């Protein structure tokens, strides 16, 4: 208990600059932990939704039925990830097919373009807060080091005005300065670990999106050629 009070006393007795550095690092640490927890929940939700949608997509259910089933959830903003990519591609595909007289390449280019746009938006959602975590991880040690250097300078300035130069005289000032370095590391280490972990998750998820977009494009190509063949057969019959 005495050690804890001693630590608090060191923080309270630190210079204004060192206290400001400590407050900044504490705020950065709290904010980064909030974002880390938020990202963990979000990535788990994305993975669960992706597995659920993949199971539905490859179950043999009609694509139009899958699209219509998700209309209400999409209107409420409850769809995300792979389903949003599917909906964007299928919506553009259906729109171009209904126009009639549009060649296969134009239909597929429009569908792929819509899926790329939707995928870019989903990537932005995945990468949300990652730049902040990278900034905290890279700058916090230097901010803490600045507080340490400033605190030591302040301690030695006080030593110059002291009549008796002993270790006991400068020890409190150096101790309070080193706390700033410790807080910098405390803020940086979790942020760096979380950033690397989330960046890897983003790469894996985006890779899954790419594979799905290619597979879905192949299905749409087959449907486009099938529709073109039926229209050609009707024209010959007429």
Automatic annotation (TrEMBL):
Residues 82-209 form the MotA/TolQ/ExbB proton channel domain. Part of the Tol-Pal system, which plays a role in outer membrane invagination during cell division and is important for maintaining outer membrane integrity. It comes from Candidatus Litorirhabdus singularis. Keywords: Cell cycle, Cell division, Cell inner membrane, Cell membrane, Membrane, Transmembrane, Transmembrane helix. InterPro entries: ExbB/TolQ_transport (IPR050790), MotA_ExbB_proton_chnl (IPR002898), Tol-Pal_TolQ (IPR014163). It comes from the Bacteria. Belongs to the ExbB/TolQ family. The gene is tolQ. This is Tol-Pal system protein TolQ. Its main location: membrane. The lineage of its organism: Bacteria, Pseudomonadati, Pseudomonadota, Gammaproteobacteria, Cellvibrionales. It is found in: Cell inner membrane; Cell membrane. The chain crosses the membrane at residues 16-37, 130-153, 173-195. The Tol-Pal system is composed of five core proteins: the inner membrane proteins TolA, TolQ and TolR, the periplasmic protein TolB and the outer membrane protein Pal. They form a network linking the inner and outer membranes and the peptidoglycan layer. The keyword Cell division applies. It is a multi-pass membrane protein. The keyword Transmembrane helix applies. It holds the Pfam family MotA_ExbB.
